[in-house]
Amino acid sequence: MNVHTTEDSSSGHHGTSPTEPPRPAVVGRAGPRAVTGEDPALRAAYRLCRRLTRREDPVQYALIQLVPGALRPACWALWAAANAVDDLADDRGATADERAARVEAWITGLDQDLAAGAGTDPVRHALVDTALRWDLDLGGLRGALEVVRDDTAGRVFADWAAWRAWGRGNLLPWFERVRELFDRAGVPVALRLDHLDGYERFLDGFRLTDILTDLAADLAQGDLLLPREALERFPGAEEDLLGGRWSEAVAGLTAELTALGRRWVTQPRLTHGMHPGPATVLDTMAGLLTAQLDAVEAAGPTLLRTAPRPRPAAVARVLVPARLRSALAWRLTPLTIPPHRPRAGVPRATAPAVLAPDSRPSTTALRPPPAHPSGIRPPRIPADRMPRHVAIIMDGNGRWAEQRGLPRHAGHRAGVRALHETVHGALEVGLRHLTVYAFSTENWKRDSEEVGALLQAMREELDDDPYGELDVRLRWAGKPDRLPADLMEALRRREHATRTRGGLTLTVCVDYGGRDEITRASAALARAARAGEIDPDRIGEGDFARHLPDPDLPDVDLLWRTGKEWRLSNFLPWHSAYAELYFTDHAWPDVERHHLWEALVAYGERRRRLGAASPPGRPAARPRQG
Ligand code: IPE
Ligand code: IPE
Ligand code: MG
Question: In 303-370, at which residue ranges do the beta strands (DSSP E only) sit?
């Protein structure tokens, strides 16, 4: 796909030196065209998504207008895809089975298009491009799409808990993709852990508003998407609704539900500490949902005949100040627009050449990881039980060598094989982020012979390029000014050469220290405050995370240490604040890929509550996936 990226056009202006490869383009106000590119089919696909959004859902369209131009095409594509699937499920010209089959065919088509890197259907074409460009986890949408497919058989909810599980299963994955998009653009929408419940409530409010608005259309099809528990509080309301009769019971029910919806969409603390850009979008969404609920309440009996629309003046009252606020919020925010990346397994032939020839993205064909000699295969781990980010303290090399009467450096060399094994296992099982601790800021205390041998082993590893043909993006994290220049350059070169790969992101921490990282983030924040870019009284966790040296490193879900030591040794303190901890006794050089898989399975059995009191029985490995 010949996609013009802002990186292509701006690389010359960023003045990168040969030792410092360009990062993805950092732009202030790139417009949609910068990311939809010059490919006419792709541009037409995005235009269609935009038209569909504007025509079918002007309110969502207005909300999307509040995000920077460079992010809008992705939002239109996501919206249009969700809408396309809903339309297939709702088409009453077909039987329930036919509709389910059509949705299923759309899902299968998406899988095929993703594998091919381009879609035959224009909406999917835009969606696949969006996913590849922004590295969005479309696998996370599968559950949401299957909910829509199964909706075709009709839904009855006994209580609010069942209703909530359904609504969140459908809505949350789409919202999560938008959050991912902001993440990738360098504006992480950090939700404070104590706000997660509020976030899910907000989505419940969104869903309830939608259902109340579309009551007439749903009833015409015999659907009543409200829980029995709510209906039963107003005897007769269910029969009246299904019979199309406005009654006192129906009026009482709608009054109660609109009040509930208002409470749910009003979560004032939700956006505290959030970047003002996404915060404005969420606050505006809440304002528009409230205006919509006002319209539902004012509709009276007409609610059973037509979808109420809020008064234009009420919408303007929310949107006009929001436009000003968001323009201001984004003006000072540089965005990171990733270069287009190839689909898994197939390199992009037209990858932009922006550095010296030897650091161009690798164009050798990617291959799957070599199988383990024993033939063992990875376990199947359900998506909602899979950690997104595993971090490993690879400990025990020295003792492993000493036990064998070998010098310590022999242990470090043996540890390299264990890392290869782990990376192969991670690729096989589909892990997205793996971060390994290779050398700490404290390890300089070791004698110079051991330090020299360790750094030499790293040089040789980089020269050998063991992941050359694997779908591995290599990144380095650590203190920038102490490692030997040749090692830094080799690290930067491999970082750059693999930057368009999207299978597994392998972050290698060399001369890394968690306190050093936090100290540097604090210094960066202080500089921003001194420059007047940030108000010290309003610094939130999201601001801090954005000023970390590697702001796109996700939170660690699972932290594993080998070597029979139960401590963290200054590893990823910010990112591991809520990690599940896992310790094993064997020395790192003895690790095989199945040890990683065992760690993943153990993680899947953990109950993560993130501070909430989650009810028994609720899957807890990734509570946010609902
Ligand atoms: C971990 O193994 C690797 C590095 C610290 C570089 P060690 O070298 O710490 O091994 P032990 O803990 O002494 O056995
Ligand atoms: C942590 O291990 C660092 C790495 C694995 C690279 P150490 O062996 O250096 O940690 P301590 O000294 O046991 O805390
Ligand atoms: Mg050690």
Answer: 335-337
Tens digits of residue pLDDT in 157-214: 988 888 988 888 888 889 989 988 988 888 877 665 556 678 888 999 999 999 999 9
* Ligand 1 atom showing the smallest separation from residue 443 Cα: 5
193 with 288, same domain: the answer is yes
Is 2 among the catalytic positions?
no
Instruction: Please say whether the beta carbons of 24 and 337 come within 8 A.
Output: yes
Residues 323 and 425 grouped into a single domain: no
Which has the closest alpha carbon to 597: 467, 422, 432?
422
Chain segment 373-391, per-residue pLDDT in tens = 888 999 999 888 999 999 9
Same domain, 593 and 501: yes
Same domain, 448 and 592: yes
On whether both 307 and 349 belong to a single domain, the answer is no
* Alpha carbon of 464 to ligand 3 centroid (Å): 25
For ligand 2, what atom is nearest to the CA of residue 588? Answer: 5
The total of other beta-carbon atoms located within 10 Å of residue 522's CB is 13
Calculate how far, in angstroms, residue 409's C-alpha sits from the geometric centre of ligand 1.
10
Indicate whether 467 and 561 sit together in one domain: yes
- Do residue 317 and residue 352 come from a single domain? no
Q: Which atom of ligand 2 is nearest to the CA of 395?
A: 5
CA 11 to each of CA 213, 330, 336, 353: distance values in angstroms, whole numbers, following the listed order: 48, 22, 13, 10
Tell me which residue has its CA closest to atom 3 in ligand 2. 440
**Stated length of the chain:** 626
Ligand 1: residues with CB < 6 A are: 394-399, 439, 443, 454, 563
Same domain, 131 and 192: no
Considering only CA atoms, give the Rg of the chain: 26
Number of domains in the chain: 3
CA separation for the pair 524, 178 (Å, rounded) = 27
* pLDDT 10s digits, 294-353: 999 999 999 999 999 999 999 999 999 999 999 988 887 888 877 654 444 333 222 222
Residue 126's SS3 state is: helix
What is the distance of C-alpha 314 from the center of its chain? 33
Residues 569 and 222: their CA atoms lie apart, in Å, by 61
